[in-house]
Design goal:
- The structure is a single chain.
- By secondary structure, the protein is an alpha/beta fold.
- It contains 15 helices and 11 strands.
- Bound molecules: zinc ion (ZN).
- The site of zinc ion (ZN) has 7 residues, from loops.
Length: about 475
């Protein structure tokens, strides 16, 4: 196995472990999302703005659109862009009645010169304009009770967010944290909450019967960095905050620092035309982000200069194209999704970013591009497989042909399921030498007369089982 395949092998093993964890905790994720709106977020392909951790939303609970600089064609003909929104709106209409879906379009910026949005050449006015144009177009199509639309800014230094509402109200979590003089994430909580074990037995068990205070100790805090603990706390907090808001128990609550909770609640109440059903989740998201960005700043201050720079600057290792990459950690990949109206533009920016990274740090393999197609349900026939996976893959591969025509690249082609996030390697073009990873789980069933659901399930299970033991061995025994 060459260096590229070795890299891919390790990458796929990490994915298997992570997808096992979300599978194990799926009931907690489900409970969390029963209390929050259907959220769709659009943002830049920059690896530093990857993921939903900074909002306190578990993986799989937010849909993402990603294009270079968050520039999109808002023409009605841009099927991918509008359809992604329609999925969230229809999901809300059918599954969270009375609660609109939530749409946030983000630009990103940095306080450090040169570390802004590469797609806009660091021009913050241009980055803001792309987001404003998009938000205006979406507001024209959907009413507030179907889809509530907010403009956002991510600060990639601290991962603090600024939300800009339709009436001009601005909520800047960095500013709020500073105004309150917070220096530690635990300070956003009520002192009583921090001191005593959580009464809910299931949550208490999931966090190892520790007091919340104990989750904010050590070099890294388990409150954020231990998956099961973090997820359980997210689920607990959204439930408790929803309870406080619906019962109006602001005077007696012993969960959040009282002044902070009151200030944020009053501010959100004053936003004109903000649907009341969105108040608990927005309150939760903002409180989470205030604490999260304080934690990020703390982490940075403890790092040596090299590691700090690696976190703040671009350090993406691969290009990911398609959907289903939510389990990857921040800054691992430049992520290109369909939906800009012209994918090749986004891929060109991705290529530029990655080539620059590789100049800083040479790699023993060519640029690796991971193309994943995600499906929302079981594939029951070869026609399903062709319609939803292989034909899409081939259409997307053509964009790679155009952009990487003159480059030597290695391509990994996989598919995944929406709720599982596990990458299954397949080859839809056996004769393409760029697709060199030696696993193809559909090799023996790729045809009308050979395919069966049980056959595919067996191959999927076989693939995972084969690797899971060695993946755990590698993780826990080096
Ligand atoms: Zn950007």
């Amino acid at each position: 196995m060459g260096p590229a395949d070795e890299y891919i092998d390790q990458y796929l093993k990490e994915n298997i472990i992570e997808s096992e964890t979300i599978q194990r905790m799926r009931h907690v994720i489900r409970e969390f999302s029963s209390r929050t709106p259907k959220v769709i977020v659009t943002k830049c392909i920059d690896g530093r703005v990857h993921g939903s951790k900074l909002k306190g939303y578990p993986v799989t609970t937010i849909r993402f659109g990603r294009t270079d600089g968050n520039i999109v064609s808002t023409s009605q003909n841009n099927f991918w862009f509008w359809n992604r929104i329609d999925k969230a709106v229809n999901d809300a209409r059918c599954n969270t009645p009375n609660m609109p879906a939530l749409f946030i379009a983000y630009m990103h910026r940095s306080d450090i010169p040169g570390l802004g949005c590469a797609a806009h050449g660091g021009d913050e006015v241009a980055a803001a304009k792309a987001v404003k144009d998009q938000v205006a177009a979406v507001r024209k199509v959907f009413s507030r009770d179907q889809l509530y639309v907010i403009e956002g800014i991510t600060n990639t230094d601290s991962m603090a967010e600024t939300l800009i509402f339709e009436d001009g109200t601005v909520l800047d979590t960095l500013q709020i944290g500073n105004d309150f003089g917070f220096t530690d994430p635990s300070q956003i909580f009520h002192s009583v909450f921090l001191k005593y074990p959580i009464k809910d037995p299931a949550i208490s068990k999931n966090i190892g019967f520790r007091t919340p205070e104990q989750l904010f100790t050590g070099k890294t805090f388990d409150f954020y960095d231990e998956f099961q603990t973090s997820l359980s706390m997210k689920s607990f907090l959204i439930r408790e905050i929803s309870g406080i808001v619906s019962a109006g128990e602001f005077e007696t609550q012993k969960l959040i620092q009282p002044d902070l909770l009151n200030t944020l609640y009053q501010k959100l109440l004053s936003v004109k035309d903000l649907p009341k059903t969105l108040l608990p989740s927005l309150l939760y998201q903002i409180i989470w982000n205030i604490a999260y960005s304080i934690y990020q700043k703390r982490k940075l201050s403890l790092m040596n200069p090299d590691d700090r720079w690696k976190l703040l600057d671009h350090a993406e290792e691969i290009i990911c194209y398609g959907d289903g990459f939510e389990l990857l950690q921040r800054n691992k990949a430049v992520l290109v999704k369909t939906g800009r109206g012209d994918d090749t533009d986004a891929l060109l920016v991705a290529k530029k970013v990655l080539s620059k990274n590789r100049q800083h740090e040479a790699k023993p393999y060519p640029i690796i591009i991971h193309l994943n197609v995600e499906n929302s349900c079981e594939l029951r026939s070869w026609a399903d497989f062709n319609e939803n996976i292989s034909s899409r893959m081939n259409t997307m591969l053509r964009n790679l042909d155009t952009v990487f025509e003159k480059e030597e690249v290695v391509i990994l082609t996989t598919f995944s399921y929406l709720d599982q996030k596990r990458f299954y390697p397949i080859k839809t073009k056996e004769d393409d030498p760029r697709i060199s990873y030696p696993v193809n789980i559909v090799a023996d069933i790729n045809g009308d007369d050979k395919f069966s659901t049980i056959g595919l399930k067996t191959m999927e299970a076989f693939y995972a089982a084969q690797r899971i033991t060695s993946a755990y061995e590698a993780k826990y025994f080096g």
